[in-house]
What does this fold into?
Amino acid sequence: MDLGFFARKGTMALYLAVAFLFLAVDPLLDLQAGEGLRHVLLELLFALFTLVGLVALVWDMYREKGQRLRLERDLQDAHGDAARWRSEAQGLLEGLGQAIDRQFQRWNLSPAERDVGILLLKGLSHKEAAEARHTSERTVRQQAREIYRKSGVGGRAELSAWFLEDLLLPDSARHHRAEPETSTQNGEVLP
It folds into this structure.
């Protein structure tokens, strides 16, 4: 959410507050001047509508500010989680990157095909990969077809699966997910 948006809403709230003050004071002055009750009631009705609009606008600003603060906190949490994950997995990622590069060499991929292969593994579309490499989408599509041909896979999903299918949770994590066993006093194991 843009801070300029809040500034514009704040300015509108200020204008409504000033309008409300004028609309609330004017009927009192009109009563003193001898204006009819109908005229005064109509002006008070306008003042009431202005007050309702002002309250709704301030409430909306308050709600949006809370939402913005929650989103900023969630974004900070996500950045922190990502940084922790990168830190914890740095060695593994470097090893995986080296293993992918060695496999690309075994498949005799050209340097350009290796670059495209990495971008495809990262999930970029052909168009995004072309923009990242400053080349045409047609060139990237051709290089992708060569990668699939040389590696013997049928497409992008199979290429990703080739590298990721053996990544499973470690044995210790799988054991923690299973139902815990309970034992009785005489040593019997109960499910």
User: Anything to note?
Assistant: The longest strand covers residues 182-183. Residues 107-164 form a domain with the Arc Repressor Mutant, subunit A fold (CATH 1.10.10.10).
